[in-house]
Design goal:
The structure is a single chain. With 259 residues, the protein is α/β, with parallel strands linked by helices. It has one domain (2-241): Metallo-beta-lactamase, Chain A (4-Layer Sandwich). 16% of the residues lie in helices and 31% in strands. It contains five helices and 19 strands. It has helices at 68-73, 84-92, 183-193, 212-216, 223-232; strands spanning 2-5, 11-15, 18-22, 40-42, 55-58, 80-82, 98-100, 106-109, 113-123, 127-136, 142-145, 163-165, 170-173, 177-180, 197-199, 208-210, 218-220, 238-239, 247-249. The strands form four sheets. Strands 7-6-5-3-2-1-19 form a seven-stranded mixed sheet, covered by helices on one side. The longest helix is centred in the C-terminal third of the chain and has 11 residues, at 183-193.
Length: 259
């Protein structure tokens, strides 16, 4: 299994001999509704569009997960699995193969990888987007991804999971509270799922964030503090901090999966 972190929430997952592009923001600016005074993400240069993508996987319909300029550049014939809200975004961009997954539903990629949607981040008052559990069918190895740290208690029944990708640091707004939940929420999901490896997402990388919203964000915690939490709670999980753009191999032990 190989992974490449492409900044922010964007990953290239190589699992079951399939190349899955997850929540890609690779080119151009990141804004919400074009309001760059409110929030703007940028990088010094665009990332290269990965080749030979077998699937695009989208957890949310917001621009930091379903980034329209990036999606416009990608081949519109690449199959997409998405939350119902994200599916609407790519359908409007005229993608030809779009599968919307509600919570609990599954899709299988080329008889090699099973993808199951789990309850994820709450957006607004009623909308709950997707997290995902990916299972390499030949080996049984699994990856769980949730980019805002909203972990459903329904996950307790699927342990063990081999790799967890989730925020480890809190990002909070005054009067609103945490909009990205790391730290205690990441520890809780590690206790539930007993992963071999835990990888941080959502923050950092080769990007610069600006705007009013960014100026109000408060950061709480650090990777080192989280490693200390893992040790204090006697968890065997390895916390790996990937370097942006560098492909790395995860060597994992095969374990029995209950899901």
């Amino acid at each position: 299994m190989y992974l490449t972190w492409l900044d922010s929430n964007s990953w290239l997952l190589e699992i079951g001999e399939q190349r899955i592009l997850l929540d890609p923001w690779l080119i151009d600016l990141l804004t919400f509704g074009g309001l760059d005074w409110l929030f703007k993400g940028s990088r010094s240069r665009d990332r290269s569009i990965p080749e030979n993508i077998d699937l695009i996987l989208l957890s949310q319909g917001l621009e930091d997960h379903a980034h329209p300029p990036t999606l416009e550049q990608l081949d519109h014939n690449i199959p997409i699995v998405a939350s119902p809200n994200a599916a609407k975004v790519v359908q409007q961009l005229n993608y030809t193969q779009v599968t919307a997954l509600a919570h609990g539903e599954t899709s299988t990629l080329n008889q090699s990888v099973e993808i199951k949607a789990t309850p994820g981040s709450q957006v607004g008052i009623t909308l709950v987007e997707n997290g995902y559990l990916l299972k390499e069918l030949e080996s049984g190895l699994t990856i769980y991804y949730e980019p805002h740290g909203n972990h459903s208690p329904t996950l307790k029944g699927i342990a063990p999971v081999d790799v967890v990708i989730t925020p480890l640091i809190d990002l909070a707004l005054p009067l609103v509270g945490s909009i990205i939940k790391g730290n205690k929420c990441a520890l809780e999901v590690a206790q539930w799922l007993q992963p071999q490896v835990l990888l941080p997402t959502a923050a950092g990388g080769d990007v610069v964030f600006e705007g009013l919203l960014n100026s109000l964000l408060e950061t709480k915690g650090s990777i080192e503090e989280f490693r200390s939490l893992i040790e204090k709670n006697n968890l065997p999980t390895r916390v790996i901090e990937p370097k942006p753009g560098e492909r790395f191999e995860l060597k994992l032990e095969k374990r029995v999966l209950n899901a």
